[in-house]
Amino acid sequence: MSVGAVVAIYFIVWWTSLFAVLPWGVRSQAESADITPGTDPGAPVRPLMLYKVIATSLIALVVTAGIVYIMTSGIISLEDIPLPFKTAE
């Protein structure tokens, strides 16, 4: 498996897992009863983005390592995945 393929898999997994991690620990201004004038009450008080980026990177690293291991070991190959259409052979 090429380095470019691993980087592409990591990027896709990272971006997908970011959306799973974003809601972690979010507390809105309305929940904390400290609404800053001119902002939405649903805006987070402390988004903790550095924590979420680090958590996302670690999750993506583990998932990408699992995907690369499965694909390089031969447990599942791209030929094992059925296509939704027939190819011309």
Helix count, DSSP H or I runs of 4 or more residues: 3
Q: Overall 3D geometry?
A: elongated
Sketch the major β-sheet: none
Ranges where pLDDT stays below 50 over 5 or more residues in a row are none
Rg on CA atoms, Å:
20 Å
What share of residues are in beta strands? under 5%
Assembly classification = single chain
- How many structural domains? 1
| Order of H and E elements | HHH
Number of strands: 0
Helix/strand structural class: mainly alpha
Percent range of helical residues:
40-55%
Terminal CA distance:
25 Å
| Overall pLDDT confidence | 90
Organism: Xanthobacter flavus
InterPro entries: DUF1467
Transmembrane segments: 7-26, 49-71
Keywords: Membrane, Transmembrane, Transmembrane helix
Walk me through this protein's architecture.
The chain has 89 residues and is mainly alpha-helical. The protein has helices at 3-21, 29-32, 49-73. The two termini are 25 Å apart. The mean pLDDT is 90.
Topology:
Elements: H1 3-21, H2 29-32, H3 49-73
Keywords:
89 residues; 3 helices
In short:
The chain has 89 residues and is mostly helical. It contains 3 helices and no strands. The longest helix is centred in the last third of the chain and has 25 residues, at 49-73.
